[in-house]
Amino acid sequence: MRTNIDIDDRLIRQAMRSSRSRTKRAAVEEGLRLLIQTRAQATISKRRSHESCVNFASSRYLRLAVRNWLLRPREISGGYVSGDAASARPSTV
């Protein structure tokens, strides 16, 4: 597709030197590809960051739920045990 755009001459010369492009078209195309690639990487990075936060939050929630379940008082054969057998209280019956 043919497109006419007005680009600063100094900017295009710097882009051509930086990218080692022989033509203005090659420099512009490389710049556009780089822009698209950079944005795609940023999007992927943001998604991974969000997923790790969700995973951390859910794993933290799970750890707390298990901890609370283990520490809750429960009845075992007439006596109450809170977490481990050493802290067993005799039954009041």
In brief, what are we looking at here?
The chain has 93 residues and is mainly alpha-helical.
Task: Provide a descriptive summary of the structure in words.
The protein has 2 helices and 2 strands, in the order ααββ. By secondary structure, it is mainly α. It is rod-shaped.
Protein traits:
about 90 residues, mainly alpha, 2 strands
User: Structural class of the helix and strand makeup?
Assistant: mainly alpha
Mean pLDDT across residues: 76
Tally of separate domains: 1
Given the C-alpha coordinates, what overall shape results? rod-shaped
Q: What portion of residues is helical?
A: 55-70%
Instruction: Measure the end-to-end span.
Output: 89 Å
Number of helices: 2
Task: Show the helix and strand layout.
Layout: H1 9-19, H2 24-71, E1 73-76, E2 79-82
Antiparallel strand pairs: 1-2
Helix pairs in contact: 1-2
